[in-house]
Design brief:
There is one protein chain. By secondary structure, this protein is an alpha/beta fold. It has one domain: Thiamin diphosphate (ThDP)-binding fold, Pyr/PP domains (Rossmann fold, 3-Layer(aba) Sandwich), CATH 3.40.50.970. The protein has helices at residues 4-8, 25-35, 49-54, 74-90, 107-111, 114-123, 173-178, 193-205, 219-222, 229-238, 265-268, 275-279, 284-306; strands spanning 41-46, 65-69, 99-105, 128-133, 184-188, 210-215, 245-248, 251-254. Strands 2-1-3-4-6-5-7-8 form an 8-stranded mixed sheet, sandwiched between helices. The longest helix has 23 residues, at 284-306. The mean pLDDT is 96.
Length: 307
């Protein structure tokens, strides 16, 4: 279990003063994740909110080795760095223990970068890929991604007379990565910092590839008060919209079970992107469908973890 006092005393690898929005979930995820790493670390970062707001030339908010790459290939870039490191270590040119982490948003992970991610995991590179999932292409105008939940209004799935928000359910990327049979896969939320830090620590210590999917609420895209980020992330967990679990060497384990499973409406109602589901009567069935979808996913997860 992580020690809060010890973690808070560690130097930050992502400094304050960056230009991410107030209340953005991404830097909270990054800060917590990097606190879990004791060794020197090389970070790769896909184009997206995290990259553009932390590296506005000639400034950088990163206090570690850091490399930017295109939207679609952060996993390929970091896997290449890791392969070069292994070669140099074999040649005796490097004797230092170094960890490798790739960060990407859901656009650069679920969609554009999925082929790169899948390939890096299948090849077995000793690296960790962390997706900060804010549920849309926030950096380029809040367009829907395959991580966007059904019913959410975005600029490319606007709620109106034609469609009531995004018409399809979100992709289960965490489950897809578990199907790659890699050593470690986990789902985390910044509201549960101890769980997040412990899982990243596990991920960097396993031999081989690891994947972590982190919820990263976005005040701009989700349309809520920026002060409510952690509260909303906690509601996502307590409604079982975003359950916390890990898959270690193929074994599924639930790492947090809500004392009281809250109704999904508690998570959806504070978000402006779902406002039309509550104000327009014809959209009410979507709320019922979303609740049933979450309930089914939760029951399936419990069975997997029991097995």
């Amino acid at each position: 279990m992580a020690n809060l006092k010890e973690l808070s005393a560690r130097p930050r690898r992502l400094t304050s003063g960056h230009r991410l929005c107030a209340g953005c979930g991404a830097p909270i995820v990054v800060q917590q994740a990097l606190m879990a790493v004791d060794d020197p670390v090389v970070v790769g970062c896909a184009t997206g909110c995290l990259e553009v707001a932390t590296t506005i030339y000639p400034y950088t908010a990163w206090r570690c080795s850091w490399i930017h790459n295109a939207f679609e290939n952060t996993a390929a870039t970091v896997s290449g760095i890791e392969a070069a490191y292994r070669s140099l270590k074999k040649q005796g040119k490097i004797d230092q223990e170094i960890k490798f982490i790739a960060f990407g948003g859901d656009g650069g992970t679920y969609d554009i970068g999925f082929q790169s991610l899948s390939g890096a995991m299948e090849r077995g590179h000793n690296m960790v890929y962390i997706c900060y999932d804010n549920g849309a292409y926030m950096n380029t105008g809040i367009q829907r991604s395959s991580a966007t939940p059904k019913g959410a209004a975005t600029t490319t799935s606007p709620a109106g007379r034609v469609i009531p928000g995004k018409p399809a359910h979100r992709k289960d990327l965490t489950g897809i990565m578990a199907a790659h049979k890699i050593p470690y896969v986990a789902q985390v939320s910044p509201s549960h910092w101890n769980d997040l830090v412990a899982k990243v620590k596990k991920a960097v210590e396993v031999e081989g590839p690891a994947f972590i999917n982190a919820l990263a609420p976005c005040p701009r895209g989700w349309r809520y008060d920026p002060a409510e980020t952690v509260k909303l992330a906690r509601l996502a967990v307590d409604t079982c919209y975003w359950p916390l679990f890990e898959v270690e060497e193929g074994k599924w384990r639930l790492t947090y079970r809500p004392g009281e499973k809250k109704p999904l409406e508690d998570f959806l109602k504070p978000q402006g992107r779902f406002k039309h589901l509550f104000t327009e009567e014809q959209n009410r069935p979507i709320l019922e469908e979303l609740q049933a979808y979450v309930d089914k996913g939760w029951e399936e997860l419990l069975k997997r973890c029991e097995d």
